[in-house]
Every structure is written in structure tokens, then in C-alpha cells.
Specification:
Length: 386
């Protein structure tokens, strides 16, 4: 997807990140293509190999390596089934699927477009934990049905437990977890405000992270959790907190972008007759004014660009005529005064620091200084382009 001004790739909408451990994932599709499953392209991130090595080390002795490998593969299959839940739901509900990536202790499914309605958002995000729960139940039932305590039974029990953990963990109500997306959808449905939903769910993610980290610290002190287990949990909590924080930040940026409007940023043009000195213009219009040159009929024919006005030293203002600084009206690019949001960014893309003539129909209503947009703190480097 080509990037343009106001566009970006880390929109938490449009993607479910699913984890045993949830962490911030970027959408660079780095990894080994594993082919297609049910029509979805599946990639294996190289970070997954880190997990394989870590688990092997943890299992430590030759006899246990095999179980380590089974554990890792079981986890991989569990995450894949979880992602398939998201992917199938997304395809059925019309938001499309770019692909599934499996990586270190988790994975994510990238959608082709944002959910148009809260209901779709909720359904796609809950389909993952739903799939995990289903796998856990089926594997658990299988284990219970088998008569002995053999290898297959142990495998099924392992699969049931890991899927149950994945289902419950990801259903926790805070972004970037699936449950956080569902909470986002719920707030969106109730308030009609998509960004507020994202902000609240992001804050919930941060709170969740603090609770998880606090619980781990308490269990560690009470000797119910090993140092490795606690460290692992802190990493999980940290990644949830970061993801929640990102969601809050992006929601705020989106909200500001939505409020962006040309007519609100338009500076009026203070017209002075041809031949007026710069000093006189400043006396009449004030220091911050945008000066225009008008003909005897009052028609505006030239405007002083911001940069030009600043080039005249104060002691030379009496001798320089405003005409010398002005640029013909026809030489300015123009923007429509009714533009809002993303369209404003698109309109000033060619020159993000220049001056633009603001027009309403045939009329010139003022000047838009593209540099003023920066003051609105809108996200100049993001925005889903789908
Ligand atoms: Zn998920």
C-alpha cells in the first residue's frame, strides 16, 4: 500500500493481533511463506524460531527435547486455529483478509479494510477466542474419551489447555487483545463514536497491563511464581500496556484528524490598495495579518505569501511597497473551504508548508497556511488507506 501524507500502517483497526503473549506487531510481512490455508496466505515470522530455541533450552535435556518440540508445535497449531477463526469471520463479513502471520508466541491476521460497523468489529474479534475455545473443548473431550494416559492423550490435554489459555487471555477486555476490540465495538455501538471506543478500550488495556504486572509481582513475592514465570508475565504486561497506549494515541490522532477543517484554519486576507508600504499595511492590518493587494474596484489580485512578508526588515518597511512582495492570485494553488479531515491533508500534499488560496465557489475567502495544520497535531504519517 503506497504511503501518502496522513497515512500509516499501524492502525489497530483492520487487524486482530492474537497472542498467547500479546505484543505490538508491525505489519511488515517478514517471514517464511507457508502457503495457503483455506485460501488465506500464511507466513511464519522468523521470531518464531526464537521461541523454538528458547523452549528447547528450557526443556534442557535430550529426553525432554521431543516434548519441547511438541509443546512449540502445539502452540503454533493453536495460534493458527485461532487466527483462522478471525480470518474466516472476516472473509464472511466482508472485511477481507490480507494474510495470517504466525510469530513469537502469537500471531496476527491482517484485514483488508476496517470494520464498517461495531457488530462486524465485535464478531471478527471474538471469532478468534471462539475458535480457541472450540478447539479446547474438542481436544478436552477427545482426551476424556481415550481410555489410557498415553502420548495421544497427553497431546490432546496439552492442546486443550493451551487453547483454553489462548481463548481466555485474548478475551480480556483491553486493547490490543481481542476482548479489547470487542469492548471497542461495544462502546462504539453505544456511543456511535468509533474513536471514543478505541480510546476507552486502549485505556482498559493499560489498566489490564498494570493489573497483570501487579498480580505477577504479588505471586512472585508470595513464592507462587518463579522468577522466569514472573519475568515472562512482565513482558506480556508490558506489551499489552504499550499496545493499549498506542491505541489511545491513534484514537486521539484520528479524532483530531476528523475535526480538521479548512474553513476553521482559513486566515482572512487584509486587502490594501496597490502602492501601500509594508509599514502602512502592518499599521492597518496588524502584525499577524495576511495581506492582499486590491485594485481600485476592491478586487483582490495578489496576496503576500507568509515567507515573503518575513523577509522585509522592520527598518525597510516604510520604503517597500506591498506589491513587491505579493504573488498573483492565479499563481496560488487553491483549496475548497469545505474540505475536512483526510481530504485536507490530501489537498496540501504537494506542498505541506506552502500557502493555499481558500475558495468557496468563485470567491476567495482567505489563505490556508499549510504550516497551520501542524498546530492541529493531526497524524501526518498515518491513516489507513483502505
Ligand atoms: Zn485473536
Amino acid at each position: 500500500m503506497p504511503k501518502r501524507l496522513g497515512e500509516g500502517s499501524d492502525n489497530p483497526d483492520g487487524r486482530t493481533i492474537t497472542r498467547v503473549v500479546e505484543h505490538e506487531a508491525d505489519s511488515r510481512r517478514a517471514g517464511i511463506p507457508l502457503g495457503r490455508l483455506l485460501g488465506f496466505p500464511v507466513h511464519l515470522s522468523l521470531s518464531w524460531l526464537v521461541l523454538a530455541v528458547l523452549v528447547t533450552i528450557l526443556y534442557g535435556e535430550p529426553g525432554a527435547y521431543a516434548w519441547g518440540a511438541v509443546f512449540v508445535l502445539g502452540l503454533l497449531v493453536s495460534v493458527l486455529l485461532h487466527e483462522l477463526g478471525h480470518a474466516v469471520a472476516s472473509r464472511r463479513l466482508g472485511t477481507g483478509v490480507k494474510g495470517i502471520t504466525l510469530e513469537f508466541l502469537g500471531g496476527y491476521t491482517e484485514m483488508e479494510r476496517d470494520a464498517p460497523r461495531p457488530r462486524v468489529e465485535a464478531a471478527v474479534s471474538l471469532a478468534g477466542p471462539g475458535a480457541s475455545l472450540l478447539v479446547a473443548l474438542v481436544a478436552g473431550a477427545g482426551a476424556a474419551a481415550l481410555p489410557d494416559d498415553g502420548t495421544v492423550t497427553r497431546l490432546l490435554v496439552h492442546l486443550a489447555v493451551s487453547n483454553a489459555i489462548i481463548a481466555v487471555f485474548n478475551a480480556l477486555p483491553g486493547l490490543p487483545l481481542d476482548g479489547g476490540r470487542a469492548l471497542h465495538a461495544l462502546v462504539w455501538a453505544v456511543t456511535g463514536d468509533r474513536h471514543r471506543g478505541q480510546r476507552i478500550a486502549g485505556v482498559a488495556g493499560i489498566v489490564l497491563a498494570v493489573v497483570v504486572a501487579g498480580a505477577a509481582a504479588w505471586l512472585l513475592v508470595a513464592d507462587h511464581l518463579s522468577l522466569v514465570g514472573a519475568g515472562f508475565t512482565f513482558v506480556v504486561a508490558g506489551s499489552i500496556g504499550l499496545g493499549g497506549g498506542t491505541a489511545v494515541r491513534l484514537a486521539a490522532q484520528d479524532a483530531r484528524l476528523r475535526r480538521l477543517a479548512v474553513d476553521r484554519l482559513t486566515r482572512p486576507i487584509f486587502g490594501v490598495p496597490s502602492g501601500t508600504s509594508v509599514a502602512e499595511a502592518h499599521r492597518r492590518g496588524g502584525e499577524g495579518a495576511v495581506f492582499g493587494v486590491v485594485d481600485p474596484d476592491g478586487r483582490l489580485w495578489a496576496v503576500v505569501p507568509e515567507a515573503e512578508d518575513a523577509t522585509v526588515p522592520v527598518d525597510r518597511r516604510e520604503s517597500v511597497e506591498i506589491d513587491a512582495l505579493a504573488r498573483l492570485v492565479g499563481d496560488y494553488p487553491s483549496v475548497d473551504s469545505h474540505l475536512t479531515g483526510d481530504d485536507v491533508l490530501k489537498a496540501v500534499e504537494a506542498d505541506p508548508v506552502g500557502d493555499y488560496l481558500v475558495t468557496a465557489g468563485e470567491d476567495v475567502v482567505g489563505i490556508l497556511r499549510a504550516s497551520d495544520i501542524e498546530g492541529e497535531r493531526v497524524p501526518l504519517t498515518r491513516r489507513s488507506g483502505t
